[in-house]
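Input record (one chain):
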Amino acid sequence: MKKLKLATLTAAFSLMAILLGDAHGESAAADSGQQTGTSVLIPGDTPVKHNRLINESSPYLLQHATNPVDWYPWGREAFEKAKKENKPIFLSIGYSTCHWCHVMEHESFADKEVAALLNRYFVSVKVDREERPDIDSVYMTVTQALTGSGGWPMTVILTPDKEPFFAGTYFPKSARWGRPGLMDLLPKVAQLWENDRDKVLASARQITETLVRITSPSPGEPPGPEIPVEAQKELEQQYDAQQGGFGTAPKFPTPHKLSFLLRRYYHSGDSQLLAMVETTLTRMRLGGIFDHVGFGFHRYSTDANWRLPHFEKMLYDQALLAMVYAEAYQVTGKPVYARTVREILAYVLRDMTSAEGGFYSAEDADSEGVEGKFYLWSTAEIEGILGSKEAAWFKQLFNLQPQGNFEDQTGHAAKGNIFYLQKPLSASAADMGLSEEELNERLEAGRQKLFTYREKRIHPFKDDKILTDWNGLMIAALAKAAVALNEPAYSNAATKATDFILRKLRDDRGRLLKRYRNGKAGLDAHLNDYAFMVWGLLELYEATFDTDHLKEAIRLNDLMLLYFWDQNNGGLYLTADDSEKLLVRNKEHYDGAIPAGNSVATLNLLRLSHITGNRSYAARSEAIAKAFSAPVARVPAGHAQLMIALEFAFESSYEVVIAGERERRDTQAMLAALREPFIPGKTIILRPNDPREADRIVQIAPYSLNMLPKNGIATAYVCQEFVCQLPTTSIKQMLENLKPSADSQSQPSATAG
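The corresponding structure, as predicted from the sequence alone:
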């Protein structure tokens, strides 16, 4: 995340110090402001007062619809009210499955005293960061700069002109342990706003002017091939050799870092890089961050050993992890990676898929108001479900203890157990005198019983909004899994989701929309929606060779370039040129929990350049790399997805055209041979014999016009930068032609006609 230049923010820091200087001041009482809402009568209960958020679609906003706070959604009405009444904006940003957002809502926003202060002195605005990443991006930049950290819930106080002058994250109602409370903070802000307005406005102007400057950096020279090597070195330094992953607690999966290292291994042959990836994937799969009963991965581990998770489950994590486990299976052929892919996707298709085929966003960490309660087990429960004999080895295998097997945040033993393994199942099977297959069968029988029992519990809240960008990631994951595991069911699910997005989340101009829920689509799409959907469509084309997917990928890509491109400095803005004008028009480049849209778009453009022969796409990809060359050079490992694109650009990459009848055995065998190994630098086109189908692909890839089957047999044309080797009908020779070595690239096909 960008940092504001601290030296220019003297007034801003002075103001923050004034507001945070005394965390234990006397609380001020205030009268409740006027609210606008509706009362509904719940049978057998008292009327419930709703604020304006009751009319929103966002589950996060709806979670706050019964607060006594007079919340507004982000929009003209709120800012007009602030200007008319001369009040600052209290902006609160979060998302529906955020644990500390729930805590702040319960402690503060549901509290009448806090609400009274907010309603009297502020105009309060709620934003769902998943629906409005553009707003979140702007004010997160400010929050990180002013506080040194960021996160959600995010609390920012603005002028009526949307200029920030105070920022923070979670605040309790009252001060504790050095953290100021809202009952202390809000009266101070109100007093400062009333009595020292000029100072507040000067501070807000300073922050805004600096923000504008840093969001318009000048492009530099494009990164060279040394940058991915530097990123590799940084990751090697950050790597935890004992437990895998990078850094210490809390530890996030960051699958795109692992995918980058797999590519570095492919091109360098450095076995240590593969060991880093395998250790990380293995430790995550063994740990409590993986749901051993219901499958899927939790968001991150609160410890360095992957044992104690933060229990929420995010769709984007499932997608990115499924992709890297699928790639690891292609690299190593180890069944455990394929099994993990199947388990992740089993969870998604079972619990996170709508009847229409779109994918839901997330599941909460909390159930019944307790974090992780749905996932915890007592040994007595295990014994009651499995019987004493089966429970004995199950408890041993998963390290379950009568007193619980982990400590809570206070350091005390928690009353429950998290399932985790200390060693791979192959080793445990040997210890138990079983084959791995026998242990897997016993384990699956027990797991099914536990899963059936757990399904009767009160489930965590599910955020059932369908986001275009996260669906694009899931489509890509399903398509890659279909290819790696030779599983058509996954490409069928990806196709159904794609059809849903293109049917329900496009407007009458053919442009994407952001969010779908309860039969309604809305909100302007952002860069990630376009970039991630193009990624999904490209992967789906290579899984199905349905030309419609490729055509739509090109169409959406071109719309993205039309509406999001920075004509002056290169790169892609987060918002379209006709979207709502915010304080700044931001561009994101850092690959955090989710890859940046610019990074994904860079690889998309390179792939499309190879597929279509349109070199302007490659030029745009280079312009993106130039636009962010300075921050990328400072922290290469923080741009892992962009490093994947640079690997594609700098290392051996190939265009492969398979000419043949789609359904014939020889064509299918050739395609299967291409799909089995990990060859990250290839793009594949199927050129059918059918004249109509052939014409459609030739319109997209004109260079394929004369690439025909030889002697009626499926034929591979392997080209590098559109310089082609002799066509071959030999699968072995085709694969030799794809090896990243100078010798193999010069060998003609023995069976070329």
